[in-house]
Amino acid sequence: MDRLDKYFKKHLTDDTPAEDNWNVPSEKMWHNAKEFLPKTEKKPKGIFSLWKGLISVLFIVMGIITINHLSNSKALPSDNLTSEKIDITNNKFNIGGTDLAQTEVIDSPEAKKSNIKPNNLVPNSTKKNDLINRETILNKSENVEIKPLVNKKTNLSIDQPTHTEKVSKAVAQKKSLNDFDLQEMQSSEFGNSDRQLKWITENSSTQTLKQLDESLNQEEIKLTSLHKNASSYLQLNKPNDISSLKFNHVNALDIENLDLDLRLTKNEFITPAQAVFPKAEWGISTAFFLLDLIDDGNLVDMQDTVRADGTYRNINLIYQKWITPRFSVSTGLHVSHLNVGIDFSQTEILQQDQLSQFANTNFKNNGVERKRADNLESDFWNFNVINGQDVQQGDELRGVGKANVDLKALQVPFLLNYHWIQNKRIEWMAGLGFTLDFIRSFEEVSDFELFKDNVPVIETFNNSRSLDYVDVSLYTTSSIRFHFSKKINLGITNRILITDPQFSSVDIGLFYRLH
Amino acid sequence: MLCLRYGKNKAQAEDIFQEGLIQVFKDLKQYDASKAGFSTWSSRVLINAALKYLKKFNWINNFEDLSIADQIEDNSHDVFDVLSASELTFYIQNLPLGYKIVFNMYAIEGYSHKEIADTLGITVGTSKSQLSKARKELRKKLESHFKLSPHG
Predict the structure, then answer these.
(1) Does residue A322 share a domain with residue A242?
(2) Bridge partners of A480?
(3) What's the rounded Cα separation, in Å, for the pair B38 and B31?
(4) Which of these, A223, A402, A409, B98, could form a disulfide with B63 (CB 3.0-4.6 Å)?
(5) What's residue A91's pLDDT?
């Protein structure tokens, strides 16, 4: 650097505005610049930030509720358990000192001597405690035997729903929620309130059966069916009609001279509760791109920059129908509008296939052969090489320009979902499926320039096109539902597009469940 | 001031500044304070904007390739100690485009010939020759100024 350079540098690096403002931009320039400066509104980003906050708060609240619910369930005070409830720790129990072991029909001499009068059979409420024991054990474990007893004068017992309910709840609370399966949940507090875990001991007296039927109706108990093993002893000819109950074995014996001791296991006698599950569900949700939630969509490399700024609006209507307690199918309609503006500056080594794809005959004139002259891309990227410029395969070209993509999409999803209920409030779902996408797109490229060694090689390029097409997208979902009530729930769904992972999204929505 | 040196007049300088300003705002997210001061970084952005702007005038053809740049004499004279910044800027503005860009980048902004060559897509020799010619031209103008002015 010689003295001239130093002199100029010394005098020309002071940016202090001169008195006559010769080195200050005019007001007009500021005014013009303002129009071109990036807008500071950034409304979409504000919305995203708001949603980020809301989603975070929702997750925190749901986490607290879940933890609270779990800890309450595990911390059941033992003082609340009666002596009957404590009996659940044993796999055996006695009724009147009798060790109830296996299912059998005993035809003993004592029995033959007894005088059973069917018409004398009445519900025996004094056996309530025994029944509580039985029900308690019933709820404790699948392996525990239930021993309804038909014996001499105590032939009929009906469990009292109020006590049963009480004990069931206590047992359920004492058990870990993880062991609290769907069936039990649905039958106790989450699903159908009709109690189906019933047993009945009876002989073939029609009159007594009618009484029993009345009692059952009063207690709002339904007897829907009998287990297939129990049907060897009992037969229910009409569903839910106790009067149609027939006691096969007794009918085959001389009941007048029989002292009957019938012992049945739970599995033999009691119909397993029918799994109860929702019928269908309607919902409305909106989606956010995962990329928007994670970063601003800008990719900056050493040389290359791609800045994307976009808005995404979406609303989804969802219909879901259960086919089993655990599985459902869903469909609906997703309506989306995506607009993305992209500023890019990228350097690439020109490849033959790129030339074939993008270049028009001008490149060919410059010595590069095109392989696919008539494809869509080449029709679109129909730019002109500046006279005198030469482009060859292997050249390093820098492309600078702007692009705008406007997509409107109608999507019809088809999903198979698996449901897992964690507890009364929290439900998890996982789904796999696809959407049929009906898309209308508008693409525009403007101010596109190609530079080779910083020299422009094409005329500034502008073009746009509209396309209508149908596509298929495969995706998986994972979802959490928070149930405000049996019918209303809030869902957050993570939708991963297998075909285009960058367009994966998070849905948040409200759902109404039909039972 | 930077834009004034690259433009031919104030109107051009304002155009350059406007585009540079927009670029600064757009690139603001890329600014890394740990790598350079903001003024250094924004100057670079403005220079790039100026070069982009000047491409419209096909400045690539303003560079005469001279591989023996050092053949040009570089005689310094201490005759210009009283010129104002606006006068100096005026002389730079009126240099041929190729001279002006290289002189600004080398003498004022502190780029090396290698950096200039890489940025402009020219050879190092060309950069040197443009600088020498720019200096010679400036000296000629300054000497002329002093001959004509009362200071001389």
Answers:
(1) no
(2) A428, A492
(3) 8
(4) B98
(5) 34
Whether A89 and A235 share a structural domain: yes
For residue B107, the chain A residue with the least C-alpha distance is A5
Q: Which of A269, A295, A329 is at the close of a domain?
A: A269
- Cβ within 8 Å, pair A11-B121: no
How many domains would you assign to chain A?
3
Last residue of a domain, one of B16, B40, B57: B57
Spatial separation of the C-alpha atoms in residues A270 and B27, rounded to whole Å = 74
- Does residue B127 sit in the same domain as residue B79? yes
Q: Cβ of B65 under 8 Å from any chain A Cβ?
A: no
Q: Residue A174 is which amino acid?
A: K
Q: How far does the CA of residue A346 sit from the closest CA of chain B (Å)?
A: 15
**CATH number of the domain encompassing residue B120:** 1.10.10.10
The pLDDT-based confidence of A398 (bands split at 50, 70, 90) is: confident
Asked if A161 and A221 touch (Cβ cutoff 8 Å), the reply is yes
On whether both B50 and B63 belong to a single domain, the answer is: no
Interface predicted TM-score of the whole assembly (ipTM), two decimals: 0.73
- Which residue from A4, A22, A456 is facing B76, i.e. has the nearest CB? A4
Q: Cβ of B141 under 8 Å from any chain A Cβ?
A: no
Residue A445 predicted with pLDDT over 80: yes
| A168 and A265 assigned to the same domain | yes
- Alpha-carbon distance of A436 to B7, in angstroms, equals 56
Number of domains present in the structure of chain B: 2
Interchain CB distance below 8 Å, A18 and B106: no
> Taking CB atoms and an 8 Å limit, are B26 and A38 in contact across chains?
yes
Tokens describing residue A87: 């009996």
Q: Judge residue B65's burial from the number of C-beta atoms within 10 Å of its C-beta, 0-12 exposed, 13-18 middle, 19 or more buried.
A: exposed
- Last residue in a domain, options B10, B38, B57: B57
A466 domain-assigned: yes
A-chain residues near B135 (CB < 8 A) = 2, 4-5
* Option in A15, A25, A307 nearest B14 (CB): A25
Q: Residue A432: its pLDDT value, please?
A: 93
Structure confidence at residue A238 (pLDDT): 63
CB contact B121 to A (< 8 Å) = yes
Phi and psi at residue A317, to the nearest 5°: -105, 130
A445 vs A377: CA distance, rounded Å: 13
Residue B66 touches chain A, beta carbons under 8 Å: no
Distance from CA of B26 to the nearest CA of A (A): 7
CB < 8 Å to B73, chain A: none
**Contact in structure between B146 and B152 (CB atoms under 8 Å):** yes
Q: Which amino acid is at A72?
A: N
Q: For B31, which residue in chain A has the nearest alpha carbon?
A: A300
How distant, in Å, are the alpha carbons of A49, A192, A506 from that of A293? Answer: 8, 40, 9
C-alpha A443/C-alpha A407 separation (Å) is 9
